What we know:
mainly beta, Immunoglobulin-like, 2 helices
Amino acid sequence: MRSIPTALKEKLANRFKVENTKSMANLRVVATQTSVNSLLSEPIHEDIAPAFGDVAVRQTAGESDLSLAYAICLDDGVAKVYKRKFPAGMEFPWEYQWTLGAATDVAIEFNGVWKMNSEKEWYYLQTEDYPYIFYVRNGNLYVQSWTNSDNASLIATGVSQISACKGWQSSVEPDIDQGLVIGYLKSGSVYYRALCCQENGSYVWEAEHEVATLGTGNTTLSVIRTNDFRIGFLTQNNGRMLLTLTHRNYAGMSVRPETVHINAANVKMWISDINELDTLNKEYASGNTAYPYVLLDEPDTVEISVASVEKLNRETDFVCYGFKLHLTNPLYGSIDSGFPIKCTLSVSGVTVTSASYDSEEQALVLYTSADIRRTVAVTITMPEYRSLWYYKLGLQRWFLPTLSAVAAAETMDYFTFGNETAGISIVSTGAWIDEAVFTQCFQPAHTAIIAVVASSISLQPVSTLPI
């Protein structure tokens, strides 16, 4: 019988080493990040193999770089949320946070605004503190803000797979927004909804849209954001990869904003006639450029003006308590307490107590300190104000100039019955003989008597207007 070599026996013995003898060979693979802005593939946990999942990173206001990463995983049909700190070194492992519950697919993404990094000269997503969670349960797609499951909203029904991505938003006009996009498959077709900024600054989940260019028969979906300010929808369809892209949304973001730096040199100041006063406290004066404007005008350009004046009338009495001045251009900015103080009225003793701007009617609304008779013409003068502006010559901001308008006087009409008659009663009468002439004739003499009736008619004033 042939003997087994010693070297072969040692190899066979090494196959049966176990952990209990602490002789099993261990191999540890460490996946680290290539930079502070990229995260390579690495296990989140090793006890259960996750089916699907998604990752989102956070950088809030005041943070110079990425600070946290959140992940949501499907572990045997149960969605769980994990967290880790940045930089993504081995000293910051993934930590379990909380359990969402049963789901067939999940996604996680932050909402936020795009900000310019002045040092690196690129835009970054300044996120909110916590991400949005998307999940599919019984074919229904839900969204909730972090752990707030009580306010979970139903997005769509009949959904098989989802993918989320934050789109580009203009840094100049916030309502030009691709939004927080959630894409999903329904019967092989691609649909999406987006949480977008509206004109009034609020965020609303807009209506469902179908990506018709991708057709039907899609089995997987991934929503992506490209570096040229687009949103892409990538699907797998019958062994093919299909990709469709949106239009660019780079308003104010593809080119770094221009800035003007002003330095003062060789500044001289002369002070004459100094009067020294001994006071208890030192006084200081400071100033700032809160609303600077650089205006490039062209000849014969139309400026903002008052198109019409509307009185704010009371239902009782012939008086008004304010005015609504409709403008030819929409206004932007804010109205503070200083604006109504500087507005003047031609009515003695009446001032403007408060003011507001109605964007729908494009009108300044002024409220007065006392009621004004509508039979009085009122001249309204509004001051030049730099915290209010309008757009002129494209996107140039022009501050509100001095405006003046007149609220015309009105007449009070009284309606009576037709064919009116006036009755005059004789209160007292007097009769006297003005001149008597007596003639002697064959006929009896006649005396001429002239009677004067004294009466008076008075007119009651019904208006301050001349009759």
